[in-house]
Specification:
Length: about 280
Amino acid sequence: MTNNHRVLIKVGGAALKDDSVLETVTQAIQRYRRHSYKVVVVHGGGPAINAALEAKGIKWNFVDGQRVTTPEMMTVIETTLCGEVNRKLVRHMGGSGLPVVGFSGTDNHTLMCTRQSDSLGQVGQIQAVNCAWVEVLMRLPSAPIPVMAPIGIGHNGEAFNINADWAATKLAVALGVEQLIFLTDQKGILDGKKKLIENTTPLELEALMIEGTIQGGMMTKARSIIHARKSGIPLVRVLNGVDALAAVNDETIGTVCAAPMKIEVPKPKVMADATV
């Protein structure tokens, strides 16, 4: 396999609430590695952040699926994602024999950000992805698994809260992965009748958002998928974390947004002139 045989898995915070799901994700990563994939992981941590904010009596709200972040909240979010959630993933995967390196987007200025908008506060918009050091890491003989918490850094060293779907997408594009997989607590993207959409396109996702079928956190995910596909990632999937292992070898699980297959049309044979 080439060095570009890669998959980036974004593990949603909701999918991490159940330790059995985390074990399923770990087994899926092991299987990808047996298939010669190099794996990168980006994680969320919404439920853990909610619990930490509640413990401190801090209230919050969302705008278009993104958490409005005050400086006080930023301290709690960074501590929770980089400490509690990232460490939990690293411990579990490492305990299963996987070589894992945990970090956040602030390390080595991996995710350089500016403020996305005044209304969202300390929410970062990624301006640059500095992944050269991740490339070096992945080329080591043991091919360690980078596990990133979605915290970005500004030009003055300030921390930014980044939506994990966007962090995963931007890193996936920079690394040139073949597959970008979003693991969540839903079976995929649903249509207006709450039925699974098995295959979709960027154009269809845009239409579903306009008509209001896709809302909230799934809207951010849909926008990330559109960006990923338009940026050249061949295949993007959304599926339930409980199906992560089965999905490695089953392309029908979840919602798939993929590039059209190239059909090779055989060239007509050139016949030599017949002699009479």
